[in-house]
Amino acid sequence: MSYTYTTEAEIMRVLSREGWLSQADDDRDGIVDPALLQEVVGEATEEINLYLAQRYRPEDLANHTLVRRWATYFACYLVSLRRGNPAHFTGIVERITGWLERIFANRMNLPGLPVRKEMGPAMSNLEINDLYRRRKIRVDPVTSVRGQNPDQDVAWDWTWE
Predict the structure, then answer these.
(1) pLDDT score at 65
(2) Is 103 exposed, middle or buried (CB count within 10 Å of its CB: 0-12, 13-18, 19+)?
(3) How far is it, in rounded angstroms, from Cα 53 to Cα 98?
(4) Helix (H) or strand (E) run with residue 127 in it
(5) What confidence score (pLDDT) does residue 86 get?
(6) Rg for the chain (alpha carbons), in Å?
């Protein structure tokens, strides 16, 4: 995973050092297992990516204060579930999930972040081109809306033959 959205220091800021160690230090030596930290941070990051990675670039998300706070609360929630304990931070995680679902449904945007690509609609006008032996159905980029858009597939990989 190239970008993570929270760190151990941010988790300790929410849980406190003693709270973090009581939840995550299994052998009581005062050191949290690095594999556990990586697992919790990775899962919190992927939870955010489930909702936001299609619309925003990971490097932008990694530097956004609100996203980092959300990922930190997800990580604290995940740590609190260990050892069969009742979950902490359930209310805030539900609120964050609601906001993430609204962003995913394109009803809300993250403040101050540009979206990954133009989110406007595109229309592809098709033409049948007999010059091609296969894949005769083609997109006509001249008459299509946003014909120069790199997301518009001019020569589809599938055929209708």
Answers:
(1) 95
(2) middle
(3) 16
(4) strand 126-128
(5) 85
(6) 23
The pLDDT, as a whole number, for residue 10 is: 96
8-state DSSP, 151: T
Residues of the chain under the 50 pLDDT cut: 147, 158-161
Task: Please state, in angstroms and rounded to a whole number, the distance separating the CA atoms of residues 5 and 101.
Answer: 18
How many helices (H) and strands (E) the chain has is answered by 6, 2
Per-residue model confidence as pLDDT tens digits over 47-56: 999 999 989 9
d(CA 9, CA 105): 32
Chain center to CA of 124:
28
Angle at 43 between CA 42 and CA 44, to 5 degrees: 90
* Nearest CA among 53, 57, 47, 54 for reference residue 6: 47
Report residue 93 as tokens.
């995680």
Residues 16 and 30: their CA atoms lie apart, in Å, by: 13
The DSSP string of 94-126 is HHHHHHHHHHHTTS---TT---SS--S--B--E
Residue type, 92: I
Q: What is the pLDDT of residues 54-88, one digit of tens each?
A: 899 999 999 999 999 999 999 999 998 887 878 88
Q: What's this model's pTM, rounded to 2 decimal places?
A: 0.72
